[in-house]
Amino acid sequence: MHVPDGFLSVPVSIATGVVAAGAIGLALRNSRAELLDDRKAPMVGIVATVIFATQMINFPVGAGTSGHLLGGALAAVLLGPWTAILALSAVVIVQALLFADGGLTALGTNITLMGLVTVTVSWWVFRGLIRVLPARRWSLAVGAAIGGLLSVPASAIAFVGLFAIGGQVAVPLGPVLTAMIGWHTLIGIGEAIITGLIVAAVLASRPDLVYGAQFQRSAPAAMTEAVPT
Amino acid sequence: MSASSTPRARISTRAFTLWALGIALVISTAVSIWASSSPDGLEFVAGAFGFDESAAASATSGSPLADYSVVGLDGNWLSVLIVGVVGCAISFALAWGLGKLAKRRA
């Protein structure tokens, strides 16, 4: 999903750069309320590191195509949406500057697509789902997984939207949109599995470090009840 | 740690941090050898519709770590090891720094 330089016009690249910079500025201000005490765990760094590492693993999704975790849902549920934007931006910046993965002029585009869109979509899907799912611990992992599943095609749709405005090659947009949604829904299944497993692992070991848990219906009582120790 | 108001922590923060970072290092330095080298979803669609040709080399493509491969090591195990360790370390540092910056802002 890393957009290279040259795919999108200069104006669109500048526009997404402004959006990304603005979002990081807002995230720096708003994430303070989400950030845990440092003595608890340097969670922002941990989540960014795990997402960087996991993004190195491209998994096959069918005839000659692969995909990797984007991590928006994982970061949003573990850290909170604003802090998630900081963690994902860090990963995308490191990938672009150090490893030439994703273009330099496309940096704003990639932060927008793989950070802002994935976090926004997955966070609200997660919040909606844990409202209707039973107030049990596994609901948090399921909510994160389904948020992750939907965030990947959402990011693909956003790319096609940008390409419709600033694409440098004339293409039939309808078929491109269909192909992008199709492949990225398959990749989204991988995203859902990885996200669900990691969130479940953190819930099993350190449930207090899962930011999203506080939004569950009657969270503390239900959760201690669900897991007698 | 008050177990009454928050769900019980099963392992210490230190253990959690070491486990998480350790797993990330193993994934990036060892498991990544078996990563699929097929084009990703976007590359595949770009190729199918012919807009892959508009891709330009990044200004950072001359980086000694470009394309997750250390210059001169030809993608061997040492290259994978260096890329994984450096990538994890710098990702951690940058994200942690942004978190610090966010907390310091009054």
What does this protein structure show overall?
The complex is a heterodimer of chains A (229) and B (106). Chain A is built from 8 helices and 2 strands. Chain A is 69% helix and 3% strand. Chain A has 229 residues and is mainly α. In chain A, helix 3 (72-79) crosses helix 6, helix 5 (107-132) runs antiparallel to helix 6 and helix 6 (137-166) packs antiparallel against helix 7. Residues 221-229 of chain A have low confidence and may be disordered. Chain A has one domain: Arp2/3 complex 21 kDa subunit ARPC3, CATH 1.10.1760.20. In chain A, a hairpin with a 2-residue loop joins strand 1 (59-62) and strand 2 (65-67). A two-stranded antiparallel sheet of chain A has the order 1-2. Chain B has a domain at 65-106. Chain B has helices at residues 13-29, 41-49, 77-104. The chains are: A mainly alpha (229), B mainly alpha (106).
Output mean pLDDT of chain A. Answer: 93
The number of domains of chain A? 1
- Count every helix of chain B, treating DSSP H or I runs of 4 or more residues as helices: 3
Total strands of chain B: 0
What does the overall shape of chain A look like? globular
Strand order of the largest sheet of chain A: 1-2
Give the helix level of chain B as a range of percent: 40-55%
Biggest beta sheet summary of chain A:
2 strands, antiparallel
Beta-strand portion of chain A reads: under 5%
Average residue pLDDT of chain B: 89
What is the CA-based Rg of chain B, rounded?
A: 20 Å
- Unreliable stretches of chain B (pLDDT < 50, length at least 5) are 1-5
Could you spell the SSE succession of chain A in H and E letters? HHEEHHHHHH
Under the CATH scheme, the architecture of chain A is: Orthogonal Bundle
Determine the fraction of residues in helical runs of chain A and give it as a percent range. Answer: 55-70%
Q: Would you tell me the structural class of the helices and strands of chain A?
A: mainly alpha
Distance between the termini of chain B: 28 Å
H/E element order of chain B: HHH
